[in-house]
Design the sequence.
């Protein structure tokens, strides 16, 4: 393990890797601080550029944006009650009331401190789990990875409570999209309908840029032009670290929720936040302050969501299975450079794995140091008009799409998905299932085809221990969901009128 750490340090010592991490970290904070953009849009725009870089350079830049955007997203959530990123929504519950009490600097510094605690906690857990991953990963064959991908897509669908049918349909649509084009095994056309431009399939990055970046640009351009106003904060940003020490238990438990739920595909930051927030409220000496400016509520929210990025890398690196849209985008960077995440990665590219671990630690340090001196500068960036943002995102998105294959057809396809993404946003329907359907659907098809020649009966699919455990988990998840549906159905049934029944009996 020590030799692997040394190899990771040597990798990060390269000027291009460090520069990519610096750009990603600081850029992620700025992007997170601007309401209406978010890390998904930024990563989608930068994704085509990273394909020409070495894997460690491209991935550290994307990880920098992924891991630092939540730091920046806390600033508008606390100061103007407008989350910079979607996962900072819960931060505004207690952060903004503190600002209204003229405690803006206290709330912001607490958010930074909790974010740093959660981020480092998640990374340390990831490093400690890496020997376990290296041992377990080779036990996953084609059928195990197929079942793990199936479990992942099932969890993604069921995570959208109240929208399960829509999420399932959109996930199936994503699976369908990845089947379009020339079949790699039989060399037959699938769903091309005679159009030659569909023979090469529908590019994942074209769809990602359309659904995330272009749809957000269309949304900002069609919405009223606004320019949020955030007042500067005064006071030492380092004060939050001292106050955090009074709430170490809340910060640690919240980080633990982030790690555990970050490893499960389809759950992510929102579930971790709400569970940690609920725990903090139930165990607090002052539960009545939650939602009115409780420092414990703010710490629970920020520690949980910043522990997730490191944990989300576990299924990605060990099995090649992304848990949400941002890690799905990172998976494409691996594939472009013929570095396949999964069992072989820990055996053949362990220095890359440790390089990523250390880059996650370093990005948290860079971000905190940057924020200690630049918070008031970022409050000025928040004031950027939304229409201007929309135009910039639109231009950069089309440049990114065209640079993939110098194809105007890709631009038109991406624009079509941008319109689809805008419609889904207007209808408040999820976009993520489409992307994960494309990624996990491709994994499922390849692994199922690889496993089928060795299967004589359907039961052979689960005749190995890990395969049987995964299959049992799938059945358990379905059973628990059906049980929940039955309970909800019973709860909404009208109670029988006993007085009327007694009258009829008389």
Sequence:
């Amino acid at each position: 393990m020590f030799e692997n750490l040394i190899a990771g340090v040597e990798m990060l010592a390269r000027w291009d890797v460090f520069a990519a991490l610096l750009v990603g970290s600081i850029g992620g904070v700025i992007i997170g601080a601007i309401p209406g953009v978010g890390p998904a849009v930024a990563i989608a725009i930068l994704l085509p550029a990273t394909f020409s870089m070495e894997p460690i350079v491209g991935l550290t830049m994307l990880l920098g944006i992924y891991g630092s955007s939540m730091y920046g997203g806390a600033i508008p959530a606390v100061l103007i009650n407008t989350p910079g990123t979607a996962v900072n929504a819960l931060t505004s519950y207690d952060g903004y009331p503190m600002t209204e009490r003229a405690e803006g600097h206290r709330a912001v510094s607490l958010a930074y401190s909790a974010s740093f605690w959660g981020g480092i906690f998640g990374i340390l857990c990831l490093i400690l789990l890496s020997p376990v991953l290296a041992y377990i990963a080779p036990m996953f064959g084609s059928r195990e990875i197929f079942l793990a991908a199936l479990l992942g897509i099932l969890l993604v669908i069921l995570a959208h409570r109240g929208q399960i049918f829509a999420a399932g349909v959109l996930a199936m649509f994503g699976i369908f999209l990845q089947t379009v084009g020339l079949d790699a095994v039989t060399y037959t056309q699938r769903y091309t309908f005679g159009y030659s431009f569909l023979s090469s399939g529908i590019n994942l990055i074209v769809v990602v840029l359309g659904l995330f970046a272009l749809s957000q640009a269309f949304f900002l351009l069609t919405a009223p032009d606004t320019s949020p106003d955030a007042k500067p904060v005064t006071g030492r940003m380092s004060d939050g670290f001292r106050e955090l020490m009074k709430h170490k238990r809340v910060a640690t438990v919240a980080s633990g929720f982030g790690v555990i739920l970050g490893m499960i595909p389809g759950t992510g930051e929102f579930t971790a936040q709400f569970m940690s927030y609920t725990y903090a409220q139930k165990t607090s000496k002052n539960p009545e302050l939650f939602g009115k400016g409780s420092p414990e509520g703010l710490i629970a929210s920020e520690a949980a969501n910043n522990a997730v990025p490191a944990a989300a890398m576990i299924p990605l690196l060990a099995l090649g299975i992304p848990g949400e849209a941002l890690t799905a985008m990172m998976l494409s960077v691996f594939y472009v450079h013929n570095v396949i995440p999964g069992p072989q990665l820990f055996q053949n590219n362990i220095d890359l794995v440790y390089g990523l671990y250390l880059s996650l630690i370093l990005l948290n340090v860079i971000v905190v140091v940057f924020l200690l001196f630049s918070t008031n500068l970022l409050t000025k960036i928040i004031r950027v008009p939304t229409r201007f943002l929309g135009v910039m995102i639109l231009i950069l998105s089309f440049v990114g799409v065209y640079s993939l294959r110098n194809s105007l057809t890709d631009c038109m396809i991406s624009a079509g998905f941008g319109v689809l993404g805008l419609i889904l946003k207007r209808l408040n329907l999820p976009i993520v299932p489409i992307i994960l359907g494309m990624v996990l659907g491709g994994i499922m098809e390849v692994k199922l085809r690889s496993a089928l020649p060795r299967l004589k009966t359907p039961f052979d699919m689960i005749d190995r221990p890990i395969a049987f455990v995964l299959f049992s988990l799938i059945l358990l998840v379905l059973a628990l969901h059906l049980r929940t549906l039955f309970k909800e159905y019973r709860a909404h049934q009208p109670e029988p009128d006993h007085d009327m029944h007694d009258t009829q009996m008389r």
Observations:
- The mean pLDDT is 81.
- The chain is about 75% helix and 0% strand.
- Strands lie at 181-182, 189-190.
- The longest strand covers residues 181-182.
